[in-house]
């Protein structure tokens, strides 16, 4: 066997001095180069690592094949924050990963690993998580407390309105109307807190999409065209059918609202297909395939850049009167289903992609 040799000359001094573990990954996703910091991180010599499948030696808790493919296709770098990285027998280390196609050959990828030191890790990511949690807890409590007095206000306004002259009655009606809107908003907050664990069973994805589509077309998406581009042979997924439909409905709703707000875009495309290359580390630590892909694609204005990085966080919204809970709920449901959601958005084309597992062998319905 001929030894694996890198065809990509690297300025040796820079490479050796880089204080972060770095790898060059060839077009076949095999390791083509490792710097000295990388050798220490992987606890192996560069000679023994070269030519090895990169993600065999380096288990990263994110769909890396997809990330690399995207970096190559777009010829642009990509950042993946707060992922667990495992090498060999070692316990996972939380890291930020940077992936960049090489300047002169986009097929070759530079991958830099920045391990987050313990203090930073405990400090920041925990505080983000608990901030989100306590924000939701607080909002739930407030929602509950505000609903009672609101009912009183609305009732009093209705009574007042009955004895008023027509021109003043409008004002009383306004109070009633606005109170109703607040109650609706509060109910959404409460619903978020009440999400039950999924009751999973084999589900036909197209049935769930159809339900969402029909419900959207008679309501908020009546002004849109929703087209179906399905792979009819797509096998079932293992999910809670109601929660799955809720995910699709939320995504369609966001698309419809963004298009309407901007007066741009008229079409939502529902696209399903099979792609075996996407793998995530499952609960048992072993890679689990997420081959069922569902994309909700719109031709609207795109996600506002100032909130793009945070749209899955609760209470982040780019629209007036938005609670910002839609996508937080979607991402919670998807992660309860051990799936993955990603988004790609430029003006004129926004794609939310949901990736789901198949039915586990022991859960298949006996026929
Ligand atoms: N398809 C899309 N096109 C453009 N922007 C989008 C799209 N989907 C989401 N967004 C942006 O992401 C924000 C967050 O969405 P999310 O569903 O979490 O909250 P919301 O729609 O504002 O409120 P809620 O869903 O709770 O009523 C939206 O306000 C919008 O600015
Ligand atoms: Mg929404």
From TrEMBL:
CDD domains the record matches: HisKA, PAS
Top-level taxon: Bacteria
InterPro entries in UniProt: HATPase_C_sf (IPR036890), HATPase_dom (IPR003594), His_kinase_dom (IPR005467), HisK_dim/P_dom (IPR003661), HisK_dim/P_sf (IPR036097), PAS (IPR000014), PAS-like_dom_sf (IPR035965), PAS_4 (IPR013656)
UniProt xrefs under Gene3D superfamilies: 1.10.287.130, Histidine kinase-like ATPase, C-terminal domain, PAS domain
Entry EC no(s): 2.7.13.3
Enzyme class name: transferase
Domain Histidine kinase residue range list: 141-360
One Pfam match: HisKA
Keywords in alphabetical order: ATP-binding, Kinase, Nucleotide-binding, Phosphoprotein, Transferase, Two-component regulatory system
Enzymatic reactions: ATP + protein L-histidine = ADP + protein N-phospho-L-histidine
Keyword ATP-binding attached: yes
Protein name: histidine kinase
Organism field: Paragemmobacter amnigenus
